[in-house]
Amino acid sequence: MSYELILMMVRLVNAAIVLVLGCAIGSFLNVVIYRVPADLSLWWPPSRCPKCLHELGVTENIPVFGWLRLGGRCAHCRTPISARYPIIEAVTGAIFLAAFYLSAETWSIALVSQWVMLAWLLALAMIDIDTMTLPNPLTQWGVAMGLGFNVAIAWQASVASGATSLAAQLAAGGAAMFASVLGAMVGLWGLDTLRLLGSIAFGKEAMGAGDSKLMAGVGAWLGWPLALLTVFVACAIGAVLGSVAIALKWVTRSQPIPFGPFLAIGAAIALIWGQAMIDAYLGFFLPAGL
Question: What is the reported pTM?
Fold first, then answer.
């Protein structure tokens, strides 16, 4: 068997593992999206039909394929099951696979951090669409996870670079912690400022307090430059899509629109392409050599 064939088989196995893992996380996100706003336990009771309360069996709980096997209906009472469940599972799997390939198929703490952040953003975006709220437990966990992952990534990088002393490793972790805390503060206060200015300009509440807390998590994960880029991209996308929706009369000017999904999209773009966007911007406006 040739080396190229073995390499291709390894890549296919890795891709399958990542896809299955992503779909499984997507299944858990469905639970989070439904239960967290309702203040229900994530662990009990097990997944069940909301009408007849039939607990789903092992085969019924398989992400995507379980729904397809059931024909989109409960096996007992035949109540329709929303297609959104397998869609979120499949989308999460696709997101995980895309992040894996963009990381050059390298398993690392940084890759896990990206997976967790993207899953967190997807859950918050869907909850905001459903309820026009961004639950405090999720936004607070975002700040904690962003800080924790950045410290772990910095420690791993310091070890990989040959830093053997505890002092050097602690210094790397401390610098990462400071950057995360600064990013969280800029994300929180920056969006609070935008929220205040918007409320003054429009004479009513421009966005919810949860949006600022979401941005605190984004800032903790990405740092303050990418947090600012996230807000800019979110506002640009929101303005364009909002104008189109109003022009097509899908919504009215007075109808509230959740801003969390736009922030989630902006954060995902900043995570993947943000540094390249900032470098291109600075390269265009700043003279060479500065």
Answer: 0.90
With tokens 């830093």, the residue in question is 163
- Range of the structural domain that residue 210 is part of: 108-290
> Domain boundary at 89, 107, 125, which?
107
Q: Is 190 helix (H, G, I), strand (E, B) or coil?
A: helix
**48: helix, strand or coil:** strand
Percent composition of the chain: helix, strand, coil (DSSP 3-state, to 5): 70, 0, 25
Residues 126-170 pLDDT 10s: 999 999 999 999 999 999 999 999 999 888 888 777 766 777 777
The candidate with the shortest Cα–Cα distance to 218, out of 275, 265, 156, is 265
Q: How distant, in Å, are the alpha carbons of 275, 283, 286 from that of 289?
A: 19, 10, 9
Task: Let me know whether 149 and 261 are in one domain.
Answer: yes
Nearest one of 108, 119, 117, 185 to 154, comparing CA atoms: 108
pLDDT digits (tens, 9 = 90+) for 75-105: 778 778 788 989 999 999 999 999 999 987 7
Q: What is the arithmetic mean of pLDDT over 175-187?
A: 91
Q: 250-277 burial, b if ≥16 CB within 10 A, otherwise e?
A: eeeeeeebbbbbbbbbbbbbbbeebeeb
Residue 158, classified by CB atoms within 10 Å of its CB into exposed (0-12), middle (13-18) or buried (19+), is buried
Q: How far is CA 74 from the centre of its chain?
A: 30
Lowest mean pLDDT among 4-13, 64-73, 245-254: 245-254
